[in-house]
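worker-3 :: picked Glycosyltransferase family 1 protein
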Amino acid sequence: MTGPIIHVSFPQPPDAYPKTLHWHAQLSRHVVEALQGRFGVRVRFSPWNAPLEPAGRDVLVSFLPHPALKDWKRSVLIENSNFDVDKWRFAAFRRFGLNAPVDSVRETGEWMRGHYAALVLSNDVAIRRVASRDPQVAACYDHMASLVRHLSVHPHPIDKVEFSRLASGVPLPPKVRMLVYHAGARKNSAELIQALRDIGLQENSDFSVAAHVPKDRTDLMAFLRQNFLIVGNTSYSETGPINMIEYLLSGFAIYGHDDWWDGAGNPRFGWSYDPAAQEANRASLRHIFHELGPTGVAAERDRVRRAFLERTDNDWPALLGPLCDHVEALLDSDHAGRIDG
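worker-3 :: tokens ->
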């Protein structure tokens, strides 16, 4: 083989999906297949922890914090962000008097400097804020755009067919129950759990709490579908949306933090940390549990799910087309592999 190599590196190998229903495996599979379809044998996958030393006019496709990205700049990155200014500056969710820690991205975020392109995966709420130049996101977006030659923002793509297979063949649960994601600051839902208790709902009867659910356990997913209509996640972190969209397509209604989830137009399915919104939070939860009933929640779930299925901006080609275009342009570009000094 002659000519530059296209190195691809993700934590999961491309052949792990769909047996492993994890976002990293899904990303690896679709990206590698798309690149191989356009560039053939020039594409070489490297395990996440394997030594990787691109040279010459080679191209690297990966995401932070892959260590090679600190030095090698002939790269096309795929990143997650909701561009929150406080999260970027302080590694914390700081609105409404809160100072809740989230994962710090400042150090590895600076590794983006000098790269050719970054395709940032985000959520609908953040994407609208970026488009409107909302002060909550504008400074972070501008900083990120200054680091790379090309920056674009995309909805998280999702394998609609694969995850929809989990949604079929399960009868409607006899009552409205919620599975709440909670595991410390990164998956925080402590205030939601307390609100559920405040309105008289009982843990392990009306709602249950889980820190993690392996989606490749089809028996477990079927059990959850038989017992829970809603998955709730009020995490401060922006890593929640893709996880929740996977649940939506798997047959659950979603209740989420309004920093990244707007209920697809129904604010009753969004949680706010605003102190002025707490009574509205409780009223929405009463409405969901006591007024809608199983058929009403299922109808709302189906409305939102149908809208996501009908979209094309969250299909894999919407991301993979621009990704391959950037790689093709970079192969012919004089963009430096390393930054002197």
